[in-house]
Design goal:
about 300 residues; alpha+beta; 6-stranded antiparallel beta sheet; 9 helices; 9 strands; globular
Length: about 300
């Protein structure tokens, strides 16, 4: 997504999607059409899962010169030079500023978009020890050790295949907001193996029930996604108004207040994980019960 947003037109594509959410038994997430909601034809990519594929990932002129010891480093540098980005999994024991740095072996995904040969580092993105998405500099040696520390090589080099003329799909937006308000899934394929799935506004109740069953430690990701969902919806409403849709500023102001409330809700969950104060848990569940009604009263004013 950070790559695609280099195109200003991609905002039209993004805000025509990421509208509905689902709770899938244990976790909450956006309903996606494809991998992170992006069509495959947006990217030119190739995957690497073994040493032979890694060698083939090198430009032809570099294959015979590459030393096996530095194969991962060389292949990454050469493909970054060609305009590719790198997505894969790494052992965060070797990654700076992580909770598991030099403490425990923990496999997690990562994103690399550059390097500095003078400093012998790659620029790697991920969630830091204080759970903020940040860039860190990782030495070539630690990067190679981290990749080798996984169960198997799993790298994906990708770049934007082509810029397209994206448009804001208003018909789709109204349809998906309607599905969200009615707690329905009208568009996306969900595996038959998925049990206890809730959609749209009904995810609030499902998430509250899940929190009450697992009171010792709240999984922050669900409440974080609810907050991000409100931020995306607010920007969507603003964009729709700019495009001439009949959305008055009162609706936008009210929804902005709802965004702020969800930020507080997320921070309350962080506070609960620190001190386990039951009053905080009750406050979280109370807000999860009332916020859907507030959102429904706002969004129902714009759905034809």
């Amino acid at each position: 997504m950070s790559v695609l947003f280099n195109s200003s037109e991609f905002y039209n594509y993004f805000y025509s999607r990421y509208i509905n959410v689902g709770f899938f038994g244990t976790h909450l997430d956006f309903l996606l059409e494809s991998w992170y909601g992006c069509d495959n034809n947006l990217f030119d990519f190739f995957t690497v899962s073994n040493e032979r594929e890694l060698i083939n990932a090198l430009p032809t002129g570099n294959r015979n010169q590459c030393r096996r010891k530095n194969l991962i480093i060389t292949a990454t540098i050469q493909n970054l030079k060609r305009g590719y980005y790198l997505y894969g999994v790494i052992d965060e024991y070797y990654v700076p500023n992580r909770r598991s740095t030099l403490r425990e072996h923990f496999i997690h995904d990562f994103f690399v978009n550059g390097f500095d040969v003078k400093k012998n580092v790659f620029y790697l993105y991920g969630y830091s020890s204080n759970r903020k998405y940040k860039r860190v500099e990782i030495s070539f040696e630690d990067f190679e050790n981290g990749i080798n520390g996984t169960d198997g090589l799993s790298l994906c080099f990708f770049q934007i295949h082509r810029y397209q003329s994206f448009f804001l799909d208003l018909k789709k937006i109204y349809k998906e907001i309607g599905a969200y308000l009615n707690s329905e899934n009208r568009t996306y394929n969900v595996s038959d193996s998925e049990k206890n799935v809730y959609y749209g506004l009904s995810v609030y109740g499902a998430l509250c029930n899940d929190l009450e069953k697992n009171v010792k430690q709240i999984d922050l990701r669900g409440l974080r996604i609810l907050w991000e969902h409100k931020q995306c919806m607010l920007q969507r409403l603003i964009l729709m108004k700019k495009r001439g849709e009949s959305i008055n500023y009162n609706i936008i102001d009210k929804y902005n207040e709802l965004v702020k409330k969800h930020e507080i809700l997320f921070r309350l969950s962080m506070k609960w994980n620190i001190n386990n104060d039951l009053e905080i848990l009750h406050s979280i569940c109370q807000k999860l019960e009332t916020y859907p009604y507030e959102e429904e009263s706002i969004l129902s004013q714009i759905v034809p």
